[in-house]
Amino acid sequence: GRSNEQFWKSANDKLIGFGGGWMPVRIVKAKGTVLYDEKGNRLLDWTSGQMSSLLGHGHPEIVETVTKYVTNLDHLFSPMVSDPVLDLAERLTAMLPPGLDKCLFLSTGSETNEAALKMAKMYTGGFEIVSLSASYHGMTHGAGAATFTVGRKGYGPQVPGNFTLPVPYAYRSPFRHPDGSYDWKTELDYGWDLIDRQSTGSLAACLVEPIVSTGGIIPLPDGYLTALKEHCRQRGMLLIMDEAQTGMARTGDMFGFEHEGVVPDILTLSKTLGCGLPLGATITSNEIESVVRKRGFFYLTTHLNDPLVCAVGAKVCDIVVREDMPRQAREKGALLRAGLLRLQEKYPQYIGDVRGRGLLQGIEIISDAKTKAPGSKLGAAVADRCMELGLSCNIVSLPALSGVFRLAPPVTITPEEIEEGLQIMDRAFAECID
Ligand code: PMP
């Protein structure tokens, strides 16, 4: 094995940086909710890997499925259909309402959004895309152009025709009134008015997450998706929902759109669907699929409908339905949220807001309760201390605003592991504040 010195030297010498720093841990094993470093230290995984390990690491049924398929039916020529692909398509569409009838299975979130955007452009004949100002939809050129948090500069022109609506950020919006009420509707109408004045008249689709996750755990206010869908309808646009993080039970509903009962024209799933393996799905209606098919929609990738990962996806569907994972996310989410609210009561100067649904929660760090001045430095210090004390959590930052802890543990987390993590956070806050 490598010494730690060799490990970090190799990381610096041999890997292309992603744009941030590597976390200062060397994880050698992941099991359930727990990561182990090279010395055997435990670290609770409250990010579910990259928000993906919905059922924890090394779930026995996932291990069994991977073993079976890697041995017997791993990968095929893309135009060959196989049974696990149909198993996944049948299970998923049975979990979804009519209008989400047909599936395209890919590998990543970026890819699923690329496919959705191309489909919407082909269906509507337009090319302009609207997304939220704190959006994250991927790293590829199309999904990246609809992403307004990171990665926009230094590559020449973006894909043309991408507009942004202000993210409905109740905590800091200028449309929040002194009495605490939040007039998101006027903010939304105002955003559309700006877009209408910039658009060339070729609007194709609006792409949103039900809870804007990487942009700061911002749940869309109740009624927002209904209003957004109406804005889309008036302009002949499709509504695409990106449920990379919110799909598959995490928010307490099986899919985030169920919270308000607004069915998107196209739904994209990834991360949670593969439970840590690279699987994504773009799902749409019979009607949209038949129109784009006639118009020559072509989308074939190396891992299109791959049997191995589709078998895993089908197993994930079985488990989340059988174990009523939405209920588990609601119940455990309520425990987590109660603990976070207790922390806010204890540190009101530094925790400005607790928000989210189910097991996707965020706490916004401030440095002054009156002015709500961002507490990004304290947030980073607390996150670092949590890591040292055995809790892996993640700070996401709102562009130019502040730091938000994003907490998204596996839905299989135990109440004891929730309590343990909360205690670590409490201790980290106490130590970093004085
Ligand atoms: N959409 C959302 C909402 C995401 O959070 C992410 C990943 N952070 C993506 C799309 C992109 O997925 P991937 O990294 O798998 O391409």
From TrEMBL:
Stored PROSITE patterns: AA_TRANSFER_CLASS_3
- Keyword field contains Amino-acid biosynthesis: no
Keyword match Cytoplasm: no
Q: Which InterPro entries match?
A: Aminotrans_3, Aminotrans_3_PPA_site, PyrdxlP-dep_Trfase, PyrdxlP-dep_Trfase_major, PyrdxlP-dep_Trfase_small
The organism sits in which domain of life?
Eukaryota
Among the Pfam families in the record, one is Aminotran_3
What keywords are annotated for this sequence in UniProt? Answer: Pyridoxal phosphate
Signal sequence residues: none
Q: What does the similarity note say?
A: Belongs to the class-III pyridoxal-phosphate-dependent aminotransferase family.
This chain belongs to the protein called Uncharacterized protein
Species in which this protein is naturally found: Vanrija albida
